[in-house]
Design goal:
Layout lengths: L2 H13 L2 H8 L3 H15 L4 E4 L2 E4 L1 H24 L8 E7 L1 H8 L4 H6 L3 E7 L13 E4 L8 E16 H7 L14 E2 L24 E2 L3 H9 L5 E4 H4 L5 E19 L6 H16 L1 H4 L3
Helix pairs in contact: 1-2, 1-3, 1-4, 2-3
């Protein structure tokens, strides 16, 4: 078997398309297809089912995927130990993060890293969803829960808190609730119920069991902007909303506590570029620890 054939197989298995895999590897579609055919010939087994809308793995392909990932991990470890690849901080690192953390915290603080390492390319994907590390949708993922399974390396990044907020204009027009029951008489904002990807994001249930929102937004930054506009009251991140002079904490005795975790696949543990980015994110999160969890 040829390692380049296996590398292409892994990319196709993770991307679900030969064309997308080829683009990520910097080769053309025909070369990628030939690599897959070469691997299937060497193994005397069909690994990929080619469809008009993408590719899927056969049973043999699923079985071989586990072996291919172990081979990949060993290759990466061997190359790192020999110091022959990835010795410089170069290449691409994709970071997947919840949009609040990604847009409001990471985006303004990653530029210094690319300035120090001109050959490093960062891709920040701040969207309200989860990421598949085994399928390489991200090299590093910031999550709101510690993963319970998989060949993943996880560490707590920082604790953070959330509180109820309204704009000054909204409070002047409608007054402030004096207890949680009075929230029912106000215009409430929350996540789109069926798009919540983690149980830990059901913030509102911890404050008011029957939280009925008139305005649902599947984005933390979107909710912040809606509250700023005077659209209503929402549970917002203290490290974002607490810095805005136009936003006021409502019922400040009610505070929700959560944690961010940083996760990457174990095969990336010895990659200098991934390790460098992970260490930088950890460092800046600790530097701003007080803002994430204000006393």
């Amino acid at each position: 078997m040829n390692w380049d054939d296996i590398r292409v197989f892994l990319a196709v298995a993770r991307a679900g398309q030969i064309l997308a895999a080829a683009r990520r590897l910097g080769i053309n579609h025909a070369t990628a297809a030939r690599r897959i055919t070469s691997l299937e010939t060497a193994l005397d087994a069909q690994l990929i089912v080619r469809r008009t809308n993408g590719c899927g793995l056969t049973g043999e392909g699923e079985a071989f995927l586990a072996h291919a990932e172990r081979i990949e991990a060993e290759m990466l470890a061997a190359q790192a130990n020999l110091g022959r690849t990835d010795s410089a901080i170069s290449g691409t690192v994709r970071i997947g993060a919840p949009d609040g953390f990604g847009v409001s915290f990471l985006a303004p603080r990653l530029g210094s890293l690319t300035a120090r390492h001109p050959e490093l390319r960062l891709q920040l994907v701040p969207v309200p969803r989860s990421f598949s590390l085994p399928q390489r949708e991200a090299d590093i993922a910031i999550t709101v829960e510690r993963p319970a399974e998989g060949r993943l390396v996880a560490r707590k990044l920082v604790d953070y808190s959330l509180s109820l907020y309204a704009s000054r204009a909204y409070l002047e027009a409608y007054g402030a609730p004096q207890n949680t029951e009075q929230l029912k008489d106000h215009r409430l904002i929350s996540y789109v119920e069926d798009l919540i990807f983690s149980p830990s994001l059901h913030f509102t249930r911890e404050i008011l069991r029957n939280w009925e929102a008139r305005f649902e937004i599947s984005s933390a930054t979107g909710q912040t902007e809606a509250v700023r506009s005077g659209a209503g009251i929402a549970v917002l991140h203290d490290y974002i909303a607490g810095l805005d002079p136009d936003l006021v904490r409502v019922l400040p005795e009610h505070r929700i506590e959560r944690s961010y975790y940083m996760v990457y696949h174990e095969s990336a543990r010895d990659l200098a570029r991934v390790r460098t980015v992970a260490d930088h994110i950890s460092m800046i999160a600790q530097e701003h620890k007080a803002a994430f969890y204000p006393q």
